[in-house]
Amino acid sequence: MLERAIEGIRGTGHRVVNGVWRLGFASRFFLATLLHSGMSFRRFQLTIKEIYFSGVLSLIIILVSGLFVGMVLGLQGYETLQKYGSESALGTLVALSLVRELGPVLAALLFASRAGSAITAEIGLMKATEQISAMEMMAVDPIARVVAPRFWAGVISMPLLAAMFSATGVFGGYLIGVVLIGVDEGQFWSQMQAAVDFRQDVMNGVIKSCVFGVAITAIALFEGYDAPPTAEGVSHATTRTVVTSALAVLALDFILTAFMFRGL
Amino acid sequence: MERKTLDLWVGLFVVAGLAAVLVLAMKVGNLSTFNMSESYALQADFDNIGGLKARAPVKSAGVVVGRVTGITFDNASYRARVSMVVDKRYQFPKDTFAKILTAGLLGEQYIGLDPGGDEVNLKSGDKIAKTQPAVVLESLISSFMFDKAADGEAKK
Description:
Chain A has 264 residues and is an all-alpha fold. Chain A is 87% helix and 0% strand. Chain A is built from ten helices and no strands. Chain B has two domains: 1-29; 39-141, no CATH class. Helices cover 28% and strands 33% of the residues of chain B. Chain B starts with a helix and ends with a helix. Classes of the chains: A mainly alpha (264), B alpha/beta (156). The interface between A and B is medium-sized, with 33 and 25 residues.
């Protein structure tokens, strides 16, 4: 009985120490990525290739999801607003919810599952097949050559993807609200423009998506780099990337929203 | 280093992303309709601001000329002090009248400026002397009811 209890305490302690250890390693890894970023800008071709893989190839899913989310917002918003006879506020509802919240957050979640998981799997496999060690052997810094370009590619792609998500979403809301249901077009746009502020709403959305981009790519890169070099290890790391970055995005979103819109 | 097709796609991606931000700014947001490049600050004390909020528009003759930047409570006079910025292009005389108005029946509240006839214009940091507080529905109804009751008393 006593031995069981001691075993339990020991296990908990081990997990806590391990967690803190990993956190420390993650911070050092993140710092090293920032410090070794020079090459990703001097040889921008490396970063461009990664933007293609994580940004351009994510376009389809981002655009299609944005369109559908906007259309659903148009339908649902209309259902509720028409009860109060204020269908003309549909544009405001669609645009504000997309620009402030849904655009950055949903684009980030899609990005985490589409590009973040790919980054983790790629780096994990590079490590498993000893390509990373081979680079170190050839005196090529793997952080500067492999990690940093992927990091900056993610940070550059994320706000662009989120902006495109919001823009197609607004278009989807327009399709449903104005074209299909028949809300007055002039009111739809003018009420939207009166309510959406460039600095307060649009720019805050862009800042949010930049932060999400940093968080997702940093988590994905670290999980890949830290993965045990086995098939199982890489698969676990990929799962952890998606789960951790989704949680990180949602938690960060809450914190950022509290700062931006409540002025805490 | 030579150009590749990949660069074209990445270039298109970046252009599309920036275009999306531009669309959000111009078509969705109000950057195109109201852009204050240079502005000056004004202040006004109100007995009651009702539901006025920071960033509410300041309008004159229905045209947006500025924005409310902050609302504080002045503990010396027990009134609400509203600070606002007004576009430099629009100048108002010193005896301008500031009112808190409501857009529509249930709409947002904004500050309406009625220009007076003074020769001297308001400068940055000036305080608008003449103000009219927001209409509070409860006090409106209660004054109406007391009036009615007083009428009834008089008739007896």
